[in-house]
Amino acid sequence: MMQRRQWIFGAAALAAGCATPLPTRARVLVVGGGFGGATAAKYLRLFSDQTLDVVLVEPEEAFVSCPLSNLVLGGSRTLADITTPYTALERRHGVRIVRDRVARIDAERKQAVLASGPSIGYDKLLLAPGVDLIWDSIEGLRAAHDEGRVLQAWKAGPETLALRRQLEAMPDGGVFAISIPEVPYRCPPGPYERACQVAAYFKQAKPRSKVLVFDANPDITSKPALFKKVFAEDYAGIVDYRPQHKTVAVDARRGLIKFEVQEDARADVLNLLPSQRAGALAVDSGLANAGGNRWVGVNWLDFSATAAVAGKDIHVVGDSILAASAMPKSGHMANAHGKVAAAAIVAELMGWPVDPAPMLSNTCYSFVDAKRVMHVASVHAYVEAEKTFRTVAGSGGLSPAPNELEATYAWNWARTIWADMLA
Amino acid sequence: MRPGLGLLLFAAAATASAQDARALQARSLAASCAACHGTLGHGVDGATVPPLAGRPAAQIVEQFKALRSGARSATVMAQIAKGYSDAQIEAIATLLAAEKP
Q: CA-CA distances (angstroms) from residue A255 to A54, A145, A249, A250, A252?
């Protein structure tokens, strides 16, 4: 059904023969169209029975999913398979999409200033800025990245394809090295899944090649027993996992990785993941007040930022917040944050009490090759006495082993959650 | 306006908003299912997990409890089911059952 507001916008645009005018105000302004922000924008419309006007600021034309993007590196899927346009969010749900970035926030005047110049006022602001890479945590990395020598591909998109091309160009007998920063970082199982995907590609196409995994953490940070078994049984002689290797510098021309403690290592394709923090917009707005000022502290009932500058009207969801205990930085979790935050914002704007007992859940699937998958799942309940989320005792768990059945579920999950946020 | 009537109207408004708030809480709770089962239980085309929209509430509750107790096995859902109470699953089932399949 076409919303009246859209019809008016559409008619005005037709009459003027130009693009839709930029909104100057929104009841709720959402910044960032990832798993957290896009979900929140859609559910703000659903939960308010389409009564709240919602504007989403997002620079990209389409959403490219980080989950499953390792399959593009492994070669079994294309970028098109993991890309979804934003159009339905506007057409079906009446979310106004502004293709731009927010340059800064004027919290006092309750305005967001767009990179292109104009401002949009808001009653409520919901930020989902994701993570930014802390380039300085690995000396030489920024320059190596900008020269195209050392890629991260920790946000799926063109860089994912560029890294795939490096793998394709690497001769048989070459070495791929991935380095993993200390927790917390986006997608705990992601680097290990990536090691599996690259190893699967090598096993089939370049069997004399190696995958080195340098982990700053004392052990594999997600599904450790399962990944170790896969490394040992499926990729023996290919994957070499080394814990407690903190990468501190890179010499990209010579392919050298330097560690805090150990001897240098050499590789042909380097995929060095630096430490991470909340997206720059959150940091620059003074909202990153937790976890060594790297992450945004939130009140868990409504995801309002705890920093004094936020007042009561800036909410933050997704990977940029300091997570509660055992809460992963995952797309599924960001989707869950977006819904709880949307319900709380609707309640606050309506003058209703906010849900005193919200729930969050999470499922992460990892592909160990093109066909076999293993999961980790959890359920998180708000605990009033501690004012945070805790996993529900007895809930959650892991796959017993990688299996083909769960590959069908993983694809179903992906298609469904993309639709849940965007369709 | 007599004070009695004002109080009555205030109480009625408060009751209405308490009901609205509870309805919203149920919708938020049911939205947890949507990441895997689709928004309001409407699965994607060719979905490989059971559709939930429009299924009888009693059936959803029964299946959920069977998963939670281990009477029915599943890869993921048996683990997720253990995180929810009877009251929560009943609220979710009522809402999803009211959807058109």
A: 48, 13, 11, 8, 5
Q: Say if A255 falls within a structural domain.
A: yes
Q: Establish if B51 touches chain A: CB-CB under 8 angstroms.
A: no
Reported as a pLDDT band with limits 50, 70 and 90, residue A9 is: very low
User: Could you tell me if A126 and A32 lie in one domain?
Assistant: yes
Cα–Cα distances (Å) from A309 to A305, A313, A317, A319, A364, in that order, read 9, 10, 17, 20, 34
Domain boundary among A235, A255, A274: A274
Closest residue of chain B to A351, computed from CA coordinates: B17
pLDDT tens digits, one per residue of B56-97: 999 999 999 999 999 999 999 999 999 999 999 999 999 999
Gap between the Cα atoms of A46 and A64, Å rounded: 23
- Are the C-beta atoms of residues A134 and A276 closer than 8 Å to each other? yes
Q: In the 8-state DSSP scheme, what is residue A285?
A: T
**CATH of residue A161:** 3.50.50.60
CB-CB under 8 Å, A375 with B76: yes
B83/A396 Cβ within 8 A: yes
In a domain, A23, yes or no: yes
Q: Which of A359, A380, A417 sits opposite B35 (nearest CB)?
A: A417
Q: Is the Cβ of A245 closer than 8 Å to some Cβ of chain B?
A: no
Tell me, yes or no, whether A103 lies in a domain: yes
Which chain B residues have a beta carbon less than 8 Å from that of A352? Answer: 17-18, 20-21, 24
Q: What average pLDDT score do residues A29-51 get?
A: 98
pLDDT tens track for A179-205: 999 999 999 999 999 999 999 999 999
Cβ atoms A345, A358 nearer than 8 A: no
The chain-wide mean pLDDT, for chain A, equals 95
> What pLDDT was estimated at residue A14?
38
Best A301, A317, A339 member to test B by mutation, with max B CBs in 10 Å, is A339
Structural domain including A176 reads: 135-274
Instruction: Tell me the three state secondary structure of residue A265.
Output: strand
Q: State pTM to two decimals.
A: 0.94
A405–B contact, CB cutoff 8 A: yes
User: Which chain B residue has its CA at the smallest distance from A337's CA?
Assistant: B32
